[in-house]
Amino acid sequence: MSATSGIGVSQDLRDVFSAAVDSKRVRFIKVSIQNETLVHDVSYAVHGSLEEDLPILQDTLDDKTPAYVLARVDDPPTEWLAIFYVPDSAKVRDKMLYASTRNSLIKSLGSTSFTDSLFATSKFDVTPEAYQAHKRHQAAPQPMSAREKEMADIKAAEREGGVPYRGSQVRTSIVGTGVGLNWGADVEEAVKGLAEGDARRLVILTINPATETLVLRSSSEADLSQLSSALPSSEPCYAFLSLPRPTVFIYSCPSSSPVKHRMIYSSGASGVYTSAKSLIPNLAARKVETSDPGELAEAWVKAEIGLNAQEDSQPVSQGTSGGGFARPKGPGRRR
């Protein structure tokens, strides 16, 4: 059976629902499928709150027959809850028919009127207690990935520290005024040196929060195979790795590091990258970010920046085609 059954809504059902929306006195509208058409079965008036009226459905619904119930919610009374009742004991054909028709029902009556839906496989799923559990589930925070949890912690720390969060594009740096961190002469010299020569070098920078200054932690010859072991495993850092072409910017922020440190480095990462672009003409457009330095395997980093193994080991001629990372020619190769 296709995703949609092609079954339409009867004009009588349209009229009943339209009148119920206008009157605000109808609590439930039961809908069933008859002769390949969605029809109105029965309606019930509002007597109390939705939870107080739900027991009505225990006598209305059949243990083995699917049905749709359109229920008016209490606040605001202009909104509706769609209950899709398909009991486990129903015939397989009926289950499939009602499952493939529910979208047609909602769209035909106006999807903007329905702000919530409830799937029921027995009458126990439409009791007041079940509806309360449904609302608690709807209000509960959605599960977050490790990265999302980390960013939520950073935002919370920013709020506690009085730093406004306005989105990633306009965040104000917590360690500066939004302009960026201070660069020492040794830091600038080390980063700028990556654009000169063909050596593979790794420059690792950290932040001194007291002076809002970038600190040169180390500058040494290294390649991708040594990257994961060279970065600090328990504290954030910025790193620049010359391949030699391109040079890659890496922001490493281990999940185990203190929230305050993660907040500082997260706020300053964009400014460091932007400043470095004026010093390193061949800085890769794609940045590498990780919460686990141990995951920075050579193949993974190359994939992140769009660089494959063949392009890393061979010069790229002007006529070479392909979707990989096109490396700029070095000095002296221009014609």
UniProtKB/TrEMBL annotation:
It is found in: Cytoplasm, Cytoskeleton. One of its GO terms (cellular component) is actin filament. Residues 308-335 are annotated as: Disordered. Its main location: cytoplasm. PROSITE patterns: ADF_H (PS51263). CDD domains: ADF_Twf-C_like, ADF_Twf-N_like. Keywords: Actin-binding, Cytoplasm, Cytoskeleton, Repeat. GO terms for biological process: actin filament depolymerization; barbed-end actin filament capping. It comes from the Eukaryota. One of its GO terms (molecular function) is actin monomer binding. Residues 6-136, 178-306 form the ADF-H domain. Pfam families: Cofilin_ADF. Residues 310-319 have a biased composition (Polar residues). Interacts with G-actin; ADP-actin form. Belongs to the actin-binding proteins ADF family. Twinfilin subfamily. PANTHER family: TWINFILIN. This is Actin depolymerizing protein.
